[in-house]
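S.,

Sequence below, as promised.
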Amino acid sequence: MNQNLKHLDLLDSLSERHNQLRSLAETLWNETSTIPISNSEWYIMSRIYKKQPTIAYVSKNVDISRQATHKFIKNLRAKGLVNVMNAEHNKKEKCIELTPLGVECYEKNESLKVTIEKQIAEKIGEEQVELLKKVLKMDWGI
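The prediction came back faster than expected:
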C-alpha cells in the first residue's frame, strides 16, 4: 500500500490520486509536445471537443471562475488551439470550437491517457481497473 495514502479517507484518497494522474498526464504531454497545455485548458478543451458551445455555456459548465475561463480560452486561442466566433443565433454571444490543431492535440492527449490506464492495469490488474471505472460511474446519490 502507498504509505502516502495509507491514512487518508475516501475523499482525500480520490483527490490525491486525481492530482497524481493529472500531473502524470501533464508531464507526458509536455515531454512529447512543444505546445504546453495546462490541466484547466484540457478541461475546457474536453467540454468543446466536437461541439461549438457558447463561451457562456462553457463558463457555466466548468468548475472554474468565469474570468479564469475567459483567460484560459484567450490562452488556447493564442496557441492556435481554438477559434472564437460570433454565435449564429445571437450576435452578442461568442461560440468556441477546436481548431484542427486543437483536435489533433486533444486526440493525442486521449491516447496518452489510454497509455496511463494501461500502465495502471499492469500494476493493479485489468479487472480492478474495470471495477474502479464502474464504481466511479455509478449513481452515488450525491
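The first strand starts at residue 82 and ends at 86.

Coffee later?
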